[in-house]
Specification:
With 171 residues, the chain is mainly alpha-helical. Helices cover 82% and strands 0% of the residues. The protein has one domain (10-154): Four Helix Bundle (Hemerythrin (Met), subunit A). It contains five helices and no strands. Helix 1 (11-35) crosses helix 2, helix 2 crosses helix 3 (102-137) and helix 2 crosses helix 4 (140-154). The radius of gyration is 18 Å and the shape is elongated.
């Protein structure tokens, strides 16, 4: 995790980063299970991965990326494309190997490992590029808009969470 620019001090970025950590742990578990020939266990973890990624990517795509599009449009479009490709790949992997045969299971497990590697590279680009850029680019209204998107999608406000964590009273 990046800690050099201070973006983790912003509640919205902290929340996205925590979600990345949950995604990484779930994806790692899926790979370990697949490599141990536990296809059902890996598929279950992939289902959990999808449940983590769907609201996370929606928050980024509806809140964070549009706020950065003026300065970083092509990069934001590329990240959205990544989201679509990763989603399609993980949905296909959720179906499991083509057959119960050993060769198909190994091919499937390798495809899973490769998809997870691509996911981790994507996360790194966000944490080392997008999040620091947001820290230096977004204004207070854009941060508020990002929080509104999170609240709409999850029912949780990062601003309220940050205030309650710090002991500040909500008015």
């Amino acid at each position: 995790m990046c800690e050099y620019c201070g973006c983790q001090a912003v509640a919205a970025i902290e929340a996205l980063t925590e979600e990345h950590e949950q995604v990484r742990a779930t994806a790692d578990d899926a790979c370990r299970l697949a490599e141990a020939a536990d296809v059902d266990g890996a598929r279950a973890r992939l289902t959990e991965l999808g449940a983590l990624l769907r609201p996370h990517t929606a928050i980024e795509e509806r809140g964070l990326f549009p706020a950065l599009a003026g300065d970083f449009g092509p990069a934001m479009e590329g990240l959205v494309d990544d989201h679509r490709q990763l989603d399609a790949t993980f949905q296909a992997l959720c179906r499991g190997p083509a057959s119960a045969g050993e060769v198909d299971r190994q091919v499937w497990a390798q495809a899973l490992v490769e998809a997870v590697r691509t996911l981790f590279e994507h996360i790194l680009r966000e944490q080392d590029g997008v999040f620091p850029a947001a820290l230096s680019t977004l204004n207070s209204k854009q941060w508020d808009d990002l929080d509104k998107v999170r609240t709409e999608l999850t029912g949780v406000s990062e601003v309220a969470g940050a205030l309650s964590t710090s002991g500040a009273a909500l008015s």
